[in-house]
Amino acid sequence: MSHQQIDQFAHRLDKGVRDSVLGGSAAGTEKRRQVLFGDLPNADSLRALAGRIKQHTLEHLDRYLEAAEERLIDNGAKVHFAWDAASACQQVETLLRERGVRQVTKSKTMVSEEIELNRHLAEKGFDLVETDLGEFIVQLDGDHPSHVVKPIIHKNRSQIAKTFERCGLGDYNDDPETITRRAREYMRRKYLSAEASITGANFVSAESGRLCIVTNEGNSRFGLAGARVHIALVGIEKLVPDDRSLSLMLNLLGRSATGQNLTVYTEFIRGPRQPEAISGPEEMHVIFVNAGRTETLASDCREILRCIRCGACMNVCPVYRQSSGHAYRSVYPGPLGAVLSPLLAGSARFAEFADLPKASSLCGACNEVCPVDIPIPDLLLRLRDRAHREHAPAAFDDAPNLKPWAMLAKSPAAWRMSLRAANMLNIVPLGFLPFGPLGRWTSQRTLPSWRGGRYRQWAAERKKQKNNPS
Amino acid sequence: MMTCLCDAFFDDVARATHEVLESLGIEVIVPESQTCCGQPAFNGGDWASARQVIRHTLNVFQGDCPIIVPSGSCAAMSFHGALLAHEKETDLPQVQAFGARTWEICDFLRNGLGIESWEGRLDARVAIHSSCHSRGTGTPEAIRTLVGSIAGVTLLDFTQPEQCCGFGGTFSVTFPHISGSMGRLKIDSVRATHPDLLVSGDMSCLMHLNGLAEKQGSPLPVKHAIQVLRDARVTPVTVQ
User: Fold this and answer.
1) CA distance B37 to chain A (A)
2) Label partner for A288 (CA 20 to 30 A): which of A35, A351, A467, B153?
C-alpha cells in the first residue's frame, strides 16, 4: 500500500511555495470576510439565494441552453457545441484556420485549461498569447495555474523576474510595477497584431444571450478591441436564467474571489459588432463545451456545477494551504477540484482521481464561504462512498480498514470486552509500533491513557446508588 | 450517547455530562449496548459498514427521549451524516427521527433548556476552539455564552478561528503530514493568546492538539466545555 499522493506532495513541497500559498490564501480569506460582510451583512442569505438560482438553472439546463442559443443567434453570433475536449479544440482550430488567423490573444478561461487549448494550438502552429498577467507568466514558464483566480499564487516576484529575464523581457528586476509595465508593453503589440481573441465567460444570461466577462486588468477588452473574430469558450454550466440574476452573481463573485466590491472591468457582450459601433469583432462565436458536464449533471454530485469559480473554497481550505494547487494533479484544485476533477474525468478515469475527495478533514469551511452554497463536504463524502464501492485503489492508500471496527460496533458485548482488553495499550510502548494507523498517529502525537469502560462502571454504580439510597 | 472516544479515553467528559444533567433534575439513562455513531466508516467512505453501525445505534436509542452527546461531531453525524448515508434507503424516516432527537450537550443546555448563564466561578483566560462539525449549529454560540458567563472567565479570541485543527478522524492517519501541520498552526494561534485553558465541545480536536503539543514537549491545558461547566458549578476551580 502506498501513501496518499497529496499528503506526500505537501510533505515534499518547497517551503517558499508553501509560504506563498499559505500567505496568499489566508489574506484572500480575510479580505473576503471583511468586504463581503462589511457591505452585505445578510451575505449568507444571498449565498443561499444564488445557490438556488444556479441549482434551478442546472435542473432546467436543456431549456436555458436552448434559449441562450436562440438569443445569441438573434444577436448575430454563431453558436457551436463541443461534446468533449478534442472537439472543442478542433472547432477553435477550424474557425481560426478558415479565417486565415495565425495570431491569437486569449484572456483567462479555465475551460481552455481543461481542454488544453494552448498546447493544441501551439502544436498546430498558431501563435497564442495569454493576456492575463498571471496566466502569461504561467505560459512563459510552461507551468500550470495552481489557483482558479490567482494562477501564480505559488510564485514569488523574484521567480517572476527571473522568468522575464530568461524570456527576453528585460534585465532582472523584481519590482512589481516594472514587471507589469514590461508585460503591458509586450502585450500591446500582440493586441494590435492579433486577428482573433479567445475569451471565456463568467456567466451567460439565457434571457438575452449576454455574456458577462470580468477581469481586473482589462485584458479581455483589449483583446476584443483589436480582433476581427471573438471566440468564447463557455462551459454549459455558466448559464443563469436572466439578466437580473447577473447583479446578484456579480455582487457575490468579486467579493468572494478577491474581496472587491466589483472586479475592475465587467463586460456584457451580446453579439458581434453592430453596424453603428465604431469597433469590436465582426464575428462572434460561442462554443458551449460539455467535457464531462452532462455526466456530472446526471450524478448525485450535480451541485458542484453551480460553481462560479471564485476560489474562496481553496483560499479557506487548510489542506489546500498546506499542499498547494498542483498537489491536486488537475485543472481545478482545492475543495472544488477534489469534487469536480474526479467527476469531469468521467467514469473511465474516475479511479485516477479517487484519492482527491479523501484530501479533506471535512471541516466544512469551503461550504461556509461558497457564494453559491455548494455542500462540498457532502459531495466529498458521496465520492468517497463511490470510490469505495468501485474499489478505486487510490482511495485506499494509507486508509485504515474500518470493517473490523464496524463488526465490533454492532456487537455490543464484544465492544465492551475489547474496551476492557484494550487497557493493555497502556503497557505496550506505542512508539515502537511504527506501522499502521496507530504508528502514524503516535509518530507526531501522544495518545491519551486508555480508560476503556470507566464511565460505564461509574454510571452503573451511580444507578445502583440512586436505586438504593442509603 | 457517551461517544466511543469518551468510552475509551475520556470517561470524565461523559461523567461531567451525566453530572450536569442530573444537577438540573434530569434523569440520565445510559443504554449499555451503545457503541459508536458510525462516523469513522462514514467519513472513510465505507457507507455500507457505516449504515450497519447507524442501524445498531438506532436500535439502542429507541423511544422519544432527547439523546444528548458530549460531541458536536457525533451529534452532527446523527442529524446530518446519518441522513446522507441513508438518503437512498427505505429506513431514512427512522434515521431522520433519530437525528431530530439528538443534541450536542451545550446546544441542549442553551437552546433546548434555555439556560443563558452559568453559576460558579473560574478565574481563567479561556480560548475556545469551535469544532468544525458544529459549524452552522447552536453549539459554538452555546459554548461561548455558557462558558463566557461563568464569573472570572475571560474569553480570548485567537486568529483564524475558522481553520480546522487537522484531526478529521481517519484523515489524521491517512494524511499525517498535512494533519500535523494544520494542528501546529492551530496550536501557534491558540498559544499566542496565552490561555489558561483551551476549551472545545469535541474531545477529538483536543486529543489531536494536545497530542501534538505533548510530543513537542509542552502540553496544552485542555478541557471539554462540559467539564468546565461542571467544575465551575461544583467547586470553584483556580487554574494555575
Assistant:
1) 9
2) A351
